[in-house]
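A.,

Following up on our hallway conversation. Structure tokens first:
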């Protein structure tokens, strides 16, 4: 008889977390999610997970070692941990740097220590960020075809890029990134650092300063004002959440502990803000009103990931194109518009 594998997901009521909980529960894992429900929309995801019947939801905060200990005890024998709990906005980190540090850096340290104490043989996947590479000022940026682009990085930024934390968010996530890597070297934990780019998809309650693809989609459907910070030509690579989960799968199944991987849409799925708005307008069949505002601190003109390492070592590549992904997100927002509106008003 095969023993059921068990997984703990921190931040499990968040956008990626609720997708991950559903994904692994449907594949036979025993899933426990830990969340403090501080993120707008998290209670909606939380209630949906509880209603499934095959996901256990535990209220708790990664800033509390006691909460983490209780969560591990609730799971029992833990085979894998997805550490997705985080403070996720650069703007919030600038306004509240101590809170950002306590959640992202200290919270990750607490998770690592909990794994070391309670599940040292478990696999740990950490959701890092491309912000660990900083502003990339040493790479020349040019305007090409109406959008910003790297002058001499045709495949994008690879894991060999020098780390250069920028903004309190970059510092807190970057410090955690390196702690996760080093716990593999020093303590032998089977850890994976996934430096994620622009992840988007359904169940994402985006706001103006985080989750921009979802936010523009929500604003377009609900008739809310949309503001473009900067000139709108800044470029990101869009990665559909289901494609990200496939990378998590491959790390758990065949990855080498201590590995670091970039995870973005790559050059094939890069788009500027203006291009995303244009695609939304095409699918909506109408124009979207927008306003312009100044650039925000730490906002890169261009970033897209070189996913070559994950492709070579794990056989992973993004499969969902930008138009397809935006279409699926738009359909979800339309179907759930009343719920999304209530969450925004809460």
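Then the amino acids I'd put at each of the 346 positions:
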């Amino acid at each position: 008889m095969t023993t059921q594998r068990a997984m703990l997901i921190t931040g499990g009521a968040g956008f990626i977390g609720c997708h991950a909980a559903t994904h692994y529960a449907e594949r036979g894992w025993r899933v426990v999610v830990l969340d403090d429900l501080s993120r707008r929309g998290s209670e909606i995801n939380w209630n949906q997970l509880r209603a499934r019947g095959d996901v256990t939801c535990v209220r708790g905060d990664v800033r509390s070692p006691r909460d983490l200990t209780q969560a591990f005890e609730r799971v029992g024998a833990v085979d894998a941990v997805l550490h997705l709990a985080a403070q996720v906005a650069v703007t919030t980190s600038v306004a509240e740097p101590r809170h950002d540090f306590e959640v992202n850096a200290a919270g990750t340290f607490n998770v690592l220590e909990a794994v070391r104490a309670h599940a040292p043989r478990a696999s740990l996947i950490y959701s890092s960020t491309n912000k660990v590479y900083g502003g990339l000022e040493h790479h020349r940026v040019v305007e090409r075809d109406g959008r910003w682009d790297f002058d001499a990085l045709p495949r994008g930024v690879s894991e060999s890029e020098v780390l250069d934390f920028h903004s309190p968010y970059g510092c807190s996530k970057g410090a955690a990134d390196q702690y996760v890597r080093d716990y593999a070297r020093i303590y032998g934990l089977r850890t994976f650092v996934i430096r994620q780019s622009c992840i988007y998809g359904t169940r994402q309650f985006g706001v103006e300063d985080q989750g921009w693809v979802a936010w523009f989609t929500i604003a377009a459907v609900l008739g809310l004002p949309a503001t473009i910070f900067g000139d709108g030509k800044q470029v990101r690579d869009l990665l559909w959440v289901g494609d990200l989960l496939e990378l998590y799968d491959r790390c758990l199944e065949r990855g080498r502990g201590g590995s670091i991987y970039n995870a973005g849409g790559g050059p094939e799925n890069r788009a500027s803000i203006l291009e995303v708005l244009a695609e939304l307008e095409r699918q909506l069949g109408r124009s979207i009103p927008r306003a312009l505002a100044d650039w925000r601190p730490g906002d890169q003109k261009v970033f897209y990931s070189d996913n070559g390492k994950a492709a070579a070592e794990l056989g992973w590549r993004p499969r969902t194109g930008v138009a397809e992904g935006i279409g699926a997100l738009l359909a979800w927002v339309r179907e759930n518009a009343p719920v999304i509106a209530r969450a925004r008003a809460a």
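Residues 226 and 290 are 5 Å apart (CA to CA). Curious whether your intuition agrees with the design.

B.
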